[in-house]
């Protein structure tokens, strides 16, 4: 019975996968030290580099892009723990890239814009610094309708209690190694990631095996 339910869940996930003739890719190389940083795509999700030590990574942006057109990346800089203001040791550099398709070689990634934290901010004794970075993106998907139809959670009665209850449900699924229950929460969000990263149904078969193991990894 459980195997039948699992196959049904997998079939639902695969049915939401789309195939695009063009697969443009957007990324950002993020480097920071001496501070904490949050990179947010306006009206979308954010990524946080909040360790006190230096951090560097290439972040795929496709899943943070809603649709084609102008994009606004919001950069938020904070002092390290134990510091009141952004210090002279704070450094942030972001370089945004575009590649024509998901199989592009590294040499095909072209820089489209960049940002570097201005020097001399320590003299202004800033507890927080924010700036916006504009660039254009052309992608084959459009998830803007979801934002239009989204519900304002502030208007939902007892929202905090309901959020905690849902959190506990997911946590229980992990602690009980209930992969089926856990994956039911991921169907829609997974489809969004699959489509924005141009993941095939064959790859989903493989990646679902990784999700099955996730509750076990969390528990350990």
What does this structure look like?
This protein has 220 residues and is an alpha+beta fold. Helices cover 33% and strands 27% of the residues. The strands form 2 sheets. A 4-stranded antiparallel sheet has the order 4-1-6-7, with no helix packed on it. Strands 3-2-5-8 form a 4-stranded antiparallel sheet, with no helix packed on it. The protein is built from 6 helices and 8 strands.
Could you report the average pLDDT, rounded to the nearest whole number? 87
Helix content: 25-40%
Instruction: Note the main sheet.
Output: 4 strands, antiparallel
- How much of the polypeptide forms β-strand, as a percent range? 25-35%
| Radius of gyration from CA coordinates | 20 Å
- What is the string of helix and strand elements? HEEEEEEEEHHHHH
Class by SSE composition: alpha+beta
Distance between the termini: 27 Å
List low-pLDDT spans: 212-220
Number of helices: 6
Which strand order does the major sheet show?
4-1-6-7
Strand element count: 8
Specify the overall morphology.
globular
Assembly annotation: single chain
What labels describe this entry?
220 residues; 33% helix; four-stranded antiparallel β-sheet; alpha+beta; 6 helices; single chain
Offer a quick outline of the entry.
This protein is an alpha+beta fold and 220 residues long.
């Amino acid at each position: 019975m459980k195997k039948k339910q699992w196959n049904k869940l997998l079939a639902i996930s695969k049915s939401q996968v789309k195939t695009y003739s063009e697969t443009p890719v957007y990324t950002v190389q993020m480097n920071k030290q001496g501070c904490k940083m949050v990179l947010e795509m306006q009206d979308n999700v954010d990524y946080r580099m909040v360790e006190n030590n230096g951090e560097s990574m290439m972040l795929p942006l496709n899943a943070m892009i809603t649709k084609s057109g102008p994009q606004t990346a919001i950069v938020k800089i904070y002092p390290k723990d134990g510091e009141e203001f952004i210090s002279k040791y704070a450094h942030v550099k972001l370089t945004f890239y575009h590649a024509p398709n998901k199989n592009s070689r590294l040499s095909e990634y072209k820089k489209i814009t960049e940002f570097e934290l201005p020097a001399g901010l320590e003299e202004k004794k800033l507890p927080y610094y924010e700036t916006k970075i504009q660039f254009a993106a052309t992608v084959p998907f459009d998830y803007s309708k979801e934002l239009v139809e989204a519900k304002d959670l502030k208007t939902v009665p007892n929202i905090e209690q309901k959020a905690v209850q849902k959190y506990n449900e997911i946590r229980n699924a992990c602690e009980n190694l209930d992969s089926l229950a856990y994956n039911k929460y991921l169907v829609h969000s997974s489809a969004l990631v699959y489509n924005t990263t141009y993941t095939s149904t064959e790859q989903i078969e493989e990646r679902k095996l990784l999700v099955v193991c996730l509750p076990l990894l969390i528990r350990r």
